[in-house]
Amino acid sequence: MAAQKPLEAEISALMVEVLNLEVPAGDIDPEAPLYGEGLGLDSIDMLEISLAIAKRYGVELRADDDASRQVFASLRNLARHVEHTRAR
Q: In this structure, are residues 13 and 77 in contact, taking their beta carbons and an 8 Å threshold?
């Protein structure tokens, strides 16, 4: 498992809190899939994460955005998207 970067650790802790996951935030592999296999999240989970990310970081994630599938592919992709969007 790859080590989490600081923003990845923040977002994984947020995901554990929002979704009441039974896995410790530090155990979430930043390169593993979030959706389906890997962490096993579903579309409702993704919606909840999107809302939490918007509230905490001011980054809007839209379900109808073509890039959403790539953004939610892994914790690392999600953190990278948040970081780049906030930097604009």
A: no
